[in-house]
Amino acid sequence: MSLTLAKPLYVLNGPNLNLLGTREPAIYGQATLEDVRGLCEAAAGAATVIFRQTNHEGELIDWVQEAREQACALVLNPAGYGHTSVALLDALKTLDIPVVECHLSNPAARERFRRTNFVSSAAAGVISGFGPLSYELAVKAALSLARERAGATASQA
Ligand code: CA2
Fold it and tell me: Which of 35, 46, 82, 138 is positioned for an S-S bond with 102, CB 3.0–4.6 A?
């Protein structure tokens, strides 16, 4: 039986991911961000997905703060900000909901600077390297963690 979640799942995307499907297909594939949105919605089944992308660090942080109150869980592809943003890490550390970090490529197998990561320490887990499938897996993992928590809360009531 799958628990109905009271709040939506947030899927947030960082800078340049709006270009998906238009550039660097050898690294990021042919799917557009709209295709990825569709895959996330399908993977979420009956759960509601709030799917957004921004090129602005402050806006991404505002959305993370919004997720604190409004979301059951967060899937985050921080894109370049994952390698640079202490501010994003600080925002993520204020969350009490499960966070799943997600990447299309496998940053560990790319340039050395991509091994610096400021957000993984605030995530329950990281899914990287599977293209759009990374998002589907991340959505399933995040909803599974959210349902575990909702079940635990319900059984304590
Ligand atoms: O693999 C990922 O999902 C990344 O988060 C993508 C980031 C990169 O900085 C991370 O190391 C790994 C880059 C996003 C840029 O997206 C583009 C998509 C199409 C064309 C150009 C850039």
Answer: 138
